[in-house]
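Query structure, 133 tokens:
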């Protein structure tokens, strides 16, 4: 279950696991822009699973209480030895509408989750969503 927003509009600090259906119900319905962004998230998750992703984390204004988010920040963990569907990986690297996608290794993933995504530009701790495909 995705926890309620804090007074500042962020999720409580840390990673909050959620299915794609939970993400859609919580973040993908409030506005037309959110619905369109959610479609890109669904597309990205399908490609990521086919490409051999190990973990998917969503961040940015999409996982806040902002009505019209700018985009959806995503970090995708790929293990070096993972079997990959090349076409799906190519599409992820090309990019998808409304998504900022980082395809990373474990060390980079840890840095994104702990440092880059874990706080805002004012160093305020915030939460993010880990999608359970």
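Result returned for the query:
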């Amino acid at each position: 279950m995705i926890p309620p927003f804090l007074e500042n509009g962020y999720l409580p600090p840390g990673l909050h696991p959620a299915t794609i259906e939970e993400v859609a119900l919580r973040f993908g319905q409030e506005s037309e822009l959110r619905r369109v962004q959610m479609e890109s998230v669904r597309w990205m998750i399908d490609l990521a699973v086919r490409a051999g992703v190990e973990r998917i984390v969503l961040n940015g204004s999409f996982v806040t209480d902002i009505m019209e988010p700018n985009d959806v920040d995503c970090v995708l963990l790929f293990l070096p030895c993972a079997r990959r569907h090349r076409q799906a990986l190519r599409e992820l690297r090309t990019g998808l509408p409304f998504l900022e996608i980082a395809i990373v290794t474990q060390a980079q993933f840890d840095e994104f989750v702990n440092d880059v995504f874990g706080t805002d530009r004012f160093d305020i701790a915030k939460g993010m969503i880990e999608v359970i495909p």
